[in-house]
Amino acid sequence: MHPYRCPFMVEHITLDHVALASHHVWDQIHRYGFQLGARWMGGPDDYTLGEEHDFYFAQMEFDGGTKLEFLEPLAGQESDFIRRFLDRNGPGPHHMTFKVPDLDDAIAAVEADGYQVVGVSKENEGWQEAFLHPKSSHGIVIQLACQGGDDGDGWETPGALPPSLRRKRPVMEKVVHLVADLEAATKLLSGPLAMTLASTGTNELGDFAHLTDGPWLLELVAPMADSDAAHWMGTRTGRLLHLQMRVADPGNVPGSTPVGDGTYELRPGDNQGTRLLLVPSS
User: How many CB atoms within 10 Å of residue 267?
Assistant: First the structure.
């Protein structure tokens, strides 16, 4: 048996979730669960995490199976990476996690394409991981994770949260990520990270590539010069622009503002650093 092969593994590389960092996870859960209707998946039982976890985390699921993870630093040393991120950037998108069937193979594949791998951890048979630094991976941390355990999610059936304002879960239509080098970013995502390149073209933001994986649609965009999107990215190699969701009556989401055609926006300053575009569901 491969020395670092997980005992219960995914069959192929798959995009599992997008993670958002903030100072207060439960503000995020209130937004995405109570106000938008995402389903609570689970997290540690409380904040008294002791030696097992030094940061708080939880996940919520959208219709179709896309997931968001929420991260909050606690007192332990293992929270340093979240604290540093928040000190440098403020709250907002932190990483994308790809689950892999074999961590060594995944590391070899991305390194063969010239990407820097950091933070390799193989000590825990149930959760082995490595990271691509955001300067290397087009503006967002990419986590490669090999997860053991026979349930695949890391939690037993979670208890229900209080009822949501929504009868139906929202749909995560797409994740829009700005990049300085569209060709290289597309090659990474459709090569060693195994997403499917579905289409390319030009839209109102700039040249784009659409990549898919199961329920996920990731739109990579090289923004037009001097556009608002280009100013948002600044001198970075990339930056997540927004999450686009389909939800009933988006104008009733607190803090949302109309941007035309029935679409509403939650600006980063009103939503823990992450811009949401809310499209009305049919």
Answer: 14
Cα–chain center distance at 241: 12
Whole-prediction pTM value?
0.92
If phi > 0 it is left, if psi is from -120 to 50 it is alpha, else beta; for residue 127 that is beta
pLDDT at 34: 93
Classify residue 6 as exposed, middle or buried by CB count within 10 Å of its CB (0-12, 13-18, 19+): buried
Strands (DSSP E) found in the chain: 14-21, 39-42, 55-61, 67-73, 92-99, 117-121, 127-132, 141-147, 171-179, 196-202, 206-213, 216-223, 238-247, 257-260, 263-266, 276-280
CB-based contact 241:275 (threshold 8 Å): yes
Domain locations along the chain: 14-147, 171-280
pLDDT of amino acid 233 = 96
Question: Which CATH number applies to 171-280?
Answer: 3.10.180.10
Report yes or no: 192 and 110 within 8 Å, Cβ to Cβ.
Answer: yes
Q: Which CATH number fits domain 14-147: 2.20.25.90, 3.10.180.10, 3.40.570.10, 1.20.210.10?
A: 3.10.180.10
- pLDDT tens-digit profile of 222-237? 999 999 999 999 999 9
Least confident of 30-34, 130-134, 165-169, 213-217: 165-169
